[in-house]
Structure formats: C-alpha cells, structure tokens
Amino acid sequence: MDVMLILQMIAAAMFAAVLYTIIGIAPGTDETAVLAPVTLVLVLTGMEPVVVLAFFISAIVAKKLTDSVPVAIAGIPGGVMAAPMVEHAMILKKHGVPDLSIRKMASGSVIGTLVAVPVSLLLANALIPFADVITSYANQLFFIGAIILALMCKNRWLALASIVPFAILIQGLRHLYWGVGVVPEGTNVFISFFLGITIGPVILTLFELLHKEKRESLERFGKKTIVLNKTKRKKEIPNPFKILTKKEVGTSAVASLVGTFTFIMSPVGMTILLGELVSSRIKDPVKKASRAISSMDALTNATYISGTLIPLIALGIPLSPVAIGPANALFNAPPVFTLDHNMHHILSTADFVWATIIGAAVALSMTYFVVVKYSQEICTFVFKWVPHEALLGLFFALVLLLAFMDAGWLNIGGVLLIGLVAGILHRWGVNYGVQFMVLYSAPWIVSIIAG
C-alpha cells in the first residue's frame, strides 16, 4: 500500500478520534444522526474509499469509548447505545466510585474492539463464498429483516402494520418526482430520504414547537445544574487488563464474541440481554454493576464493528442494523457508491484489514488514554460549552442541503414529510432498523402489492 495513502488514513483516523471524542460526550447524541451525515459528506467529496473506512472505524471506536463518560458522571447517556448502562452506572455513582465506572466502561470498549476486529475480518471472509446467493435475494431479505426487527420492537404490531404504508409513502414520493420531472424516471432518491428518517425525531419536535397549545404546555427549565464529583487522576498509564478483573475480561470477551456473530440483530437489544445475563447472579451491587457495564460496553463496540465490516466485506449490501444506519454511506451514496458498486467491489482484503487496524488502533491509542485520564475535564467542557441543540442544528442544516442537492426544493418538502412520519413512528416505538429496511425494500414491496 502507498505510504501517502497510509498517512492519509492515519490523519483521517486522528480527525475522527478527536471529533467523536467531543461528540460522544455531548449528551443525547444519536449514533446514526452523528455518524451517517459526516461519513456521507466524506464519500461525496471523492475521498479515497480506504481513507473513509479508516475514518469510520476510528469514529465508531472513539464514539463508543466516550459516550459512556456522561453516563458515569451525570447519569445522562452520550448516545442511544449508552442508555442501557445508566442504571448500573448510577449504582456505582451512588457508592461514590464514578471514576471506576468510567474506567470499567472504557476498558470494556477496548476488549470489545480487540475481539471484534479479528473475528469480524475472519467471519466476513468465511461468508464471501455465499455472497452471490445472499445478494440475489437482497430485496426479500430486507423485507424479512423489517419483519424480524418489527417483531423485536416493544410495539411489534404497530411496527408490522407500518411497513406497507411507509413503503407506499417512500415510493409514492419517488413517482411524484418522476411525474413532475424533478429527477429522471428510474432515478431513486435515496440519500435524503435516509437522512430524513435519521433526524425524524428532530423534525417532529421542531414542528411541534409551531403548535401553540403544544408549545405553551411544555415545561420550562432554567439552567440545568449538574454536580460533578471531583476524582483523583491516576498517574500510571491506563491498562484495561489491570482495570478489569479476570472475570470481567472474560465476560467482556464472551459478550463481544456473541455480539460479533449476532451482527444482524438489534445492538441495543443484544446489549441489554447479554449485559443483564452476565451479571444476574452477582449479589454485591458494585461488582454486579461493574460486570454489567464492562460487558455492555464491550458488546456495543463489537456489534458496531462487526455490523459494519461483515456485510461490507462479505456481501456489499447493508444487511445489519448498523450497516443500514450509521454505516449506510459506505454501501449506498449515489453517485459515488451504489449497491452494485461500493467499497465491497472496490477495496481488496488487504485494504479492509489496513483501514480497520489503523482506524481502531488510532482511536484506541488516543481516545482511551484521554477518556481514562481526563474524562472529568472533557465532560465539564462539553456540558458547559457545547450545546446539544447546536449539534442537532448543524446536522439538520446538512440534511436540508443534501435534500436540495438530491431533487431540488420539492425534495425539501418530501424529506420533511418523511421525517415527520418517521419521527412519529419512532416515538411510537418503531425503531430505526425497521424504517431503514423498509426504505431499501420499498420498490419491491410496492411492486408486489401492485402486481
């Protein structure tokens, strides 16, 4: 591999590590909403695919390492995947050891990365011989995936009932665009629809603020006071194998391995299931919480890495909740990437290995050290100076820009419509995975219904 390309990969990975260390600590940031748009922009700018992949892997690792910090310090998840850890982290905080919580979660992330990277690469290459068979049934698999994920939702019947109407809405807008000549017939507007689903809850909330009665009924708050307990900074270089006990290392590794093999399942569901399973028999509250959060953090890293790499290397189609959400731009970002021409078809096995190792190594070496050593200072800075609303506003503006680039002014209205429906469905308990699977399978679903 060219030395200059390796240097670009390292630079991109370093940029991702810094950016997502800050974003990860910002409270309430959704992984899909903050990873997908930035990755998409990098792809559309024409950046080398292997450099984009190194960026994305570094971003995953950094985001997963840092989104546990506000959980431990303030009980506020830095992302959706960190939400299941709040209860256990608050137990450790109640017992006066929030610093232990941070070290345990960050160390669990390291274990998850170390397990997931080699296992994902091996499993992906093992699945390559079956790729043609799997991809030939892509539409049916997306539809089946939507049904499976719908059955895993809390409101499963609502999720199942929403599949066909949501598919009709998506395909109906595409036919409208073809009919009025906004885009050439047969051109599928995809990117902006995908991003509309991603920030659907934000669009819904903004529209609700325009409703007078709804706006006036909202509770008002002053400046929020967050108390941070001062902790002593450790002088030695952090070592995850010393921070975690042997049993915690073992359960974290096992959870990561299971999470890697179940890459097609919901990451949040697997995190809750395995996290509670490995700690259920422990009586001591501190030991139980420590075991749970270290295993959960390991699992979240593993599911994100495997959910990206395995479909990308083996199949070339996004057949996992992670691939169809945060990593979608690596598979489908017209005109640069399509399902018939993306990183799967462009990069060699060596490219995938180099990009993954560089991205993971850079993020681990930078972010892990910073999180364990300076988590409280970073958290204080982000809580004080980086408003959550500013980040959401930035991504919302980016979505509107890409919507205009996709199909002009009419598409801004279309994206707002999809965002409203997606936001309502998300609030009612229909998760992103179902909606993204429907987005992919919409042409096939409508064609089958229409006969």
Please tell me about this protein's structure.
The protein has 21 helices and no strands. By secondary structure, the protein is mainly alpha-helical. It has one domain. The chain is globular, with a radius of gyration of 21 Å.
Care to count the β-strands?
0
Distance between the termini: 50 Å
- Broad structural category: mainly alpha
Radius of gyration: 21 Å
Number of domains: 1
Query: Averaging pLDDT over every residue, what do you get?
Result: 84
Q: What's the total helix number? A: 21
Please state the overall shape, judged from the principal axes of the Cα atoms.
globular
The helix content is: over 70%
Please report which band the strand proportion falls in: under 5%, 5-15%, 15-25%, 25-35%, 35-45% or over 45%. under 5%
Unreliable spans are none
- Report the major sheet: none
The sequence of SSEs as H and E is HHHHHHHHHHHHHHHHHHHHH
Domain DUF112: 11-431
Transmembrane segments: 6-26, 38-62, 68-86, 106-128, 134-151, 158-177, 189-210, 252-274, 309-331, 352-372, 392-425
InterPro entries: DUF112_TM
Organism: Filibacter tadaridae
In short:
With 451 residues, the chain is mainly alpha-helical. It has helices at residues 3-25, 31-44, 49-66, 69-74, 86-94, 98-127, 131-136, 138-151, 156-180, 191-198, 200-208, 212-217, 240-243, 246-261, 267-279, 285-315, 321-324, 343-346, 349-385, 388-427, 432-450.
Summary keywords:
451 residues, transmembrane, mainly alpha
Write the topology of this structure.
Blueprint: H1 3-25, H2 31-44, H3 49-66, H4 69-74, H5 86-94, H6 98-127, H7 131-136, H8 138-151, H9 156-180, H10 191-198, H11 200-208, H12 212-217, H13 240-243, H14 246-261, H15 267-279, H16 285-315, H17 321-324, H18 343-346, H19 349-385, H20 388-427, H21 432-450
Keywords: Membrane, Transmembrane, Transmembrane helix
InterPro entries: DUF112_TM (IPR002823)
Transmembrane segments: 6-26, 38-62, 68-86, 106-128, 134-151, 158-177, 189-210, 252-274, 309-331, 352-372, 392-425
